[in-house]
Specification:
By secondary structure, the protein is of the alpha/beta class. It is 36% helix and 19% strand. It contains 8 helices and 9 strands. Strands 3-5-4-6-7-8-9 form a 7-stranded mixed β-sheet, sandwiched between helices. α1 links the parallel β4 and β5.
Length: 246
């Protein structure tokens, strides 16, 4: 599918109310396969891989959440989807929150899994707060996602380090979302993270507490890779929230 100046890989499956899945940084749609499979029996699930991820070729220059949001809106336009329930993981959660702020008419609800408002939200495995820790640092996810990247990317396996370098620059510099601005979100929101997440639990609480009526779920015994560690539970929580959100 063509959006802007890029051809992106897209999947659309199922019937029912529309749900948009947004993957994390250095992830492909394979990372959300369990959630997609759980939703397609009752929802029409839209998903695409951003430039430099999965089956979509990379772009020149650095990444930015502003372009990611614009590409997501353009994808909905190209897919003929006026609005959707947004389920975003990591970078996808950030995009979902920004869409709810800047494009509220396109968002029916947001499930924000392991998202953050600023680069200061990260901590290492010992619980020490770090100023600019990439979400995947210190966990097994990058190796799994690298295998997916090397198998799927049209840019070839050697381009993975280029993508990671650009992502590290992004994660050290963005986003910068004022918690006070989140009060403008009117869509139902579920904030989710792992209790051993590299996103500090107090940061997830801050996000949820800043959004009127938002729900918070901290999944026990999980890290930033919670969607792979507890896929059935995560999918159940998403389905229950979507039923409530209507």
């Amino acid at each position: 599918m063509r959006i802007g100046d890029a051809d992106v890989y897209s999947e659309v499956a199922g019937d029912g109310d529309p749900v948009l899945l947004l993957h994390g940084g250095f992830c492909s749609l394979e990372s959300l396969r369990a959630q997609s499979d759980a939703l397609t029996p009752d929802y029409r699930v839209y998903a695409f891989e951003r430039p430099g991820h999965g089956r979509t070729a990379d772009i020149e220059g650095d990444y930015g959440y502003g372009r990611m949001v614009a590409d997501t809106v353009a994808y909905l336009d190209a897919a003929g989807c006026e609005s959707a329930h947004v389920v975003g993981y990591s970078d996808g959660a950030i995009i979902g929150l920004l869409m709810a702020l800047d494009h509220p008419a396109r968002v029916r609800s947001v499930t924000a899994i392991s998202g953050n408002l600023d680069p200061g939200a990260f901590r290492d495995s010992a619980g020490v707060v770090l100023d600019a820790l990439p979400p995947s640092s210190g966990e097994s996810r990058p190796d799994v996602e690298r295998m997916h990247y090397e198998r799927l990317s049209p840019d070839g396996p050697e381009h993975a380090d280029v993508v990671l370098t650009k992502l590290f620059r992004l994660w050290r510099s963005e986003p910068h979302i004022d918690p006070a601005d989140l009060a403008r979100i009117t869509a139902p929101v579920l904030v989710m993270s792992g209790d051993r997440d590299t996103i500090r639990p107090d940061h997830s609480l801050l996000i949820a507490a800043s959004i009127p009526g938002a729900q918070l779920c901290v999944v026990p015994g999980t890290t930033h890779n919670l969607i792979a560690e507890r896929p059935e539970l995560i999918s159940l929580l998403i389905r229950d929230f979507l039923r409530e959100a209507g």
